[in-house]
Amino acid sequence: QVQLEESGGGTVQPGGSLRLSCAASGRVVSITSMGWFRQAPGKGRELVAIITGGNTNYADSVKGRFTVSRDNAKNTVYLQMNSVKPEDTAVYYCYAYLRPAISGSGFSNFWGQGTQVTVSS
After folding, report:
1. What is the DSSP letter of 54?
2. Helix (H, G, I), strand (E, B) or coil at 5
3. How many Cα atoms are found within 13 Å in the side-chain-facing hemisphere of 12?
4. pLDDT tens digits, residue range 54-84?
């Protein structure tokens, strides 16, 4: 079965940087898009950044600070977080819209388990 495995979360000081990574394990036929969502305490899950082919989309709150990239050969998506702010504190979830290498399977949404990012001095 396909899983999204996240790493890189942790605690960072305001203004600092953090790099999240997420690899899709298992056999995958095709990946249309990969990206990141986040959920702060008491808030709903929101889109942070997503990459589809060569196109990227970012939440207004992270534009100019975060960069999403993808290594297609490794089925991995990254989120480079620069100039982080306390309001970036949240659980970050990797997302992918992909087609598993399972007979009869089409494209489906996949989610990582979430990784905590805490921005604090």
Report:
1. T
2. strand
3. 23
4. 899 999 999 999 999 999 999 999 999 999 9
Is a pLDDT exceeding 90 seen at residue 39? yes
Look-up of token digits 């950044």: 49
Q: Is residue 96 within 8 Å of 50, Cβ to Cβ? A: no
* % of the chain surpassing 70 pLDDT: 100
Q: Which two tokens stand for residue 103?
A: 């007979």
Q: How far is CA 67 from CA 27, 53, 62, 103, in A?
A: 27, 15, 9, 35
47 close to 59: Cβ distance less than 8 angstroms? yes
Structure tokens, 69: 């990239």
Q: Strand pairing of 28-39 and 90-100?
A: antiparallel
Specify the 3-state DSSP secondary structure of 88. helix
Q: Which two tokens stand for residue 41?
A: 């305490």
